[in-house]
Amino acid sequence: MKNLTILRKLISIYYYITLLIFAIGMIVIPYRLSTHKKMEMIFSIDAIDLNYLSSLQTNIILLYLAGIYILYILAIKLIKDTVDQLSKGVFFTTEISRKFKNIGRYFVVIGIYGSIVKWLIDLTAFSRMSTNIEVTMLVFILFGLFFMFLSEAFAKAQTINEENNLTI
Predict the structure, then answer these.
(1) What is the DSSP string of 85-116?
(2) Where do runs of H (alpha helix) occur along the chain?
(3) What is the pTM of this model?
(4) 113, 112, 107, 115: which is closest to 149 by C-alpha?
(5) Which of 22, 61, 125, 140 lies most in the core, judged by the most C-beta atoms within 10 Å?
(6) Alpha-carbon dihedral of residues 30, 80, 75, 104, nearest 10 degrees?
């Protein structure tokens, strides 16, 4: 349980730092764009200089990236909540299984959505078509599938646990 407590604290710290970075970004990015200072955003491998794009292209790219970041924050929040419950000794419940499944769905959506965003950024910012999937986005999809598998394992463990409780 000591390891779970440490994990719980680390995930909480990471979650709040992620929220802080998002909040700072929501303030700094529009300010930097309004002052027309050089503003590069790195997505995947490519650096995008937002000053050379039209305001419509810039807003679209920022909305895409904000969408991915919000999904990521929601996934981390679910992980935080799940670890909080697990640290209290609540293991094999429907709620834990459902949370793992939702975490998996978020990660899969982040991976697919991130690949689509990368493709759209290549198309709008660089006027090129790429068909490759970034390794980072593939890792999100694999994490998502792992959490979905974990959800099924916890659901199965819950039914076995309930059967054992009924056996005399």
Answers:
(1) HHHTT--S-HHHHHHHHHHHHHHHHHHHHHHH
(2) 2-34, 55-87, 94-125, 135-166
(3) 0.83
(4) 107
(5) 140
(6) 170
